[in-house]
Amino acid sequence: SLRPITLQLLQEKVFGRHSIPDGWLLVLTGNPAEYHRGAMEMDAVTADRVRLLWIEPDYAVWKEYMEEKGLDQGVLSYLDSHRKHFYSKREGLRGRYIVTPRAWEDLSVMLHEMQKRGIPVTYPLIAQYISDGRIADSFFTYYCQRERACTSERIRRILRGEENTEDKLNMLSFEAQLSVIFAVLQELRTLAEEAVKRKETAEVVSSALRRIRLACEEGECSFSEGLRDVVQEEEDQAAKAYLMKNWRWLQENEDDWALLQETFFTDIKTPAEAAKDAFAASMQGSISVLLKEIEQDSLLQCFFHELAEEDMIIEMSLHCEIPAMRALFSRVSFSFEEESEMLLQEVKEEKRRNRREAVKRRQEEKASPVVEA
C-alpha cells in the first residue's frame, strides 16, 4: 500500500531519501473512482492533511486549446451545439460508457490526418474513439451532413460573395447551416492570421531598416554592424529570415536606400497589403452571402458572437473597410441570452431528426444480407 509513504510525505515532506525543499507545495492529481477501478477514498488522517479540489472540465478553455492546435473543426462545431457530449458517462448493457475531452482531441487529430490524405471517415473509426454508441451515432450523422454541406466549392463561393439560387444555405438543415458557418469562420480565421502575421513582419522590417539607417547617418556603426545587431536581437522569425536571406545583397547595396525601399515594398509590404485585401474581400463576401441566404436570426447571432471572440479577425477588421459589417450589426440582436432559447430549441429538434436517421440506418444495416467470402 502507498498509504504509509503518502502519510510520510505529507507529515515530514520526505519521499524515500529525498526531502522536499522548504517553500515547495505538492500538487497531486488523479482520477475519481468512477473513472479508475484502483482508486480508493482517502482515509481521515490523510484527508485532514490535504486540500482537496474537484476539477471539472471547462469546454471554453479546452476549445481555446484546440483552436491553437488547428485541428479538425468538425469536432468543435459539433460540440458547440452538443455541450453535454463533451464529457459524458452512463451505464449501459455492456458496462460504463465514458466520453472524455481526451477522446475528442484524439479523434480530432485522426480526422485531421485522414482529411489531409483523402481517406474517407467511417462509423467504425468514430466508434474507436467515442465509446458511447448514442454519441458516436450522433456525431457520425452530423459529420456526414457537414461534409456534404461544407464542400470546398461552397465555402469558396461564400468567401467570394457569390450567390447561387440553386445552392442557397437556407435549403440546408439547421445543423448543416451551422457547420457551414463554422467552416467559413475557420477560413476567415486563417486569412486573418496570415494578414496579421505579414503586417507585423512588415512593421518589424521597416522599423529595423529605419534604425540601421539612422545609426549609419549618425556614425554610430557601419551598415554591416547595424544589420548584425538587428538580426541577433530580432524575435520575429519571418523578419529575421528576410534580413538574413538578403544579408549579402543588403551589404552590397547599403548606400542605395531607394533600392532597398523598393525591394522592401516588393518582398514584404506588397504581400502584406495583398493578405489584408484578401481578408477584407472574404469578410465582405461571406457576410453579404450569409445575410442573404440565412433566414434564422439565431444563426446570424451565432456567427456574430463567434466573430466577436476571434481576436485576429477583430484586429484586422479594424484596419479594413468592410461595409457589410454595418448590415450585420443592424440585423443581429445584441441580446444573445434572449436568442439562446430559440437556438437551443432548434438544436434539439435537429438532434431528434438525427436520432431517427441513426435508428433507421441501423435497422437497414441489420436487414441487409451478410455476404461471406
**Biggest sheet: strands, sense, closure?**
2 strands, antiparallel
Rg result: 28 Å
One letter per element, helices H and strands E, the order comes to HEEHHHEEHHHHHHHHHHHHH
Mean pLDDT: 79
Shape: flat
**Fraction of residues in helix:** 55-70%
Tell me the strand percentage band. under 5%
Report low-confidence residues grouped into runs of 5 or more.
Answer: none
Distance between the termini: 53 Å
Number of helices: 17
Q: How many DSSP-defined strands? A: 4
Q: If strands are numbered along the chain, what order do they take across the biggest sheet?
A: 1-2
Alpha-beta content class: mainly alpha
Structural account:
This protein is mainly α. It is built from 17 helices and four strands. It has a two-stranded antiparallel ribbon. A two-stranded antiparallel ribbon has the order 3-4. Helix 4 (73-81) crosses helix 9 (174-217), helix 9 runs antiparallel to helix 10 (223-233) and helix 9 (174-217) crosses helix 11 (237-245). The chain is flat, with a radius of gyration of 28 Å.
Topology:
Elements: H1 3-12, E1 14-15, E2 18-19, H2 44-47, H3 59-69, H4 73-81, E3 88-92, E4 95-99, H5 101-117, H6 123-129, H7 133-149, H8 152-160, H9 174-217, H10 223-233, H11 237-245, H12 247-252, H13 257-293, H14 297-309, H15 311-317, H16 324-331, H17 336-367
Antiparallel strand pairs: 1-2, 3-4
